[in-house]
Fold this sequence. Notes:
alpha/beta; 5 helices; elongated
Amino acid sequence: MPSLRDIRGRIRSVQNTRKITKAYQVVAATKLRRAQQAVQTARPYADKMLEVLATTSALATEYRHPFLQRREGNRAVVILVTTDKGLCGAINVNAIRAANRHLLDNQLKGRWVTIGKKGRDFLARFGRDIIADASELGDYPAFAAILPAITVALQEYEKGEADTVLLVFEKWITTLRQEPTVRTLLPIEIPKRQPEGQGAAQPSTTSDYIYEPSAEEVLDALLPRYVETQVYQAVLENKASEWSARMIAMQNATEAAGELIDSLTLFMNKVRQAMITTELMEIVSGAEALRSSGS
């Protein structure tokens, strides 16, 4: 049985751990609010760009940009978005599993562009082909920091070295819910414009635009920007998912530490009671022995 000193030391250790997890929980909750604002601010921009693309492609019906053309083949470049740090639950594992499952189900051979240290380290450990990486992005990722990695993926597709480009990330739904998402970036599938009042899905618009110099040239400029915007949106979504998962994980850790402290305190009281009982028994036995010897 452990000594009373050992149990008290264990309780102090768990109490210190609970203070740390509680502090992490507070920090994650604070940064989550800013990450949510970034996600909600970026979503209208991405939706509007998709609307403009739909309008432009409807005018340039005879023009086929390489990013819009489907290819037959099984070569894929996977842009995998993960976190740089741990203590955020299973969101990185879920994203990697979703990517591997998609590759297996569609019989694709993947090369990888990693955004985030956790995904890069995992793939490197298993000898996967990583062609570009953007890590150590900080708490508030900048677009310029991930642009070189996106450019590598686009160049692979333009050179004909890949038949599709996939984007894998954790989509932020709510604080308690994040979903691993696999999205096809290239070839781009632009929804057709639908007349208003027919229950059309987004994007739909009643506006008509005049393009200068031409719709084809505007489409040439917009398509790469659209892909880059989708990746940056995914990074923001993944960052919000990270803080949500970390806050919940630290909350669970704090509660578990509290339960362990209660359990150890109860055990300490039992040990202390047993020690007191043993000492009383020894005192009574000694007194009885002295009485017996005196008589």
